[in-house]
Amino acid sequence: MIGFCLLVALVCFGCLVPNEWLPSLPNDKLMHFLAFAGLTLMLWPLASGVAFAVSVVALLAGGWAIECLQTLVPGRGFSWRDLAANAAGIAAACILLLAWQTWADDAYRIFVQ
């Protein structure tokens, strides 16, 4: 839980400070993708089932809120591409987790039962 909260704080800080405070990034969209994929992966052990689904929707809403708040930060603005990269990171992590869960269930049935 502490790691998740720290990553949320880091993502919020990185997204809500003026551009001149940040180092030059090689690929902004990749950073959004990885940040939100990481947040989604960190949610997995904290919530399951419906709680995980609600948390993922809240994460996407949080990404949208950050984009809206960026309009208040000098040199920053709302970006649909950033929001799309956030959503793609969340979706990729969910697909990875679903594949992992499916494999783990199959492995359990094969080796334990």
Give me some keywords for this one.
113 residues; single chain; elongated; 4 helices
Order of helices and strands: HHHH
Oligomer: single chain
Biggest sheet character: none
Strand content: under 5%
From the helix content, strand content and strand pairing, which structural class follows?
mainly alpha
Number of strands: 0
Structure, described:
Keywords: Membrane, Transmembrane, Transmembrane helix. 73% of the residues lie in helices and 0% in strands. It has one domain. With 113 residues, it is mostly helical.
In short:
By secondary structure, this protein is mainly alpha-helical. Helix content is 73%, strand content 0%.
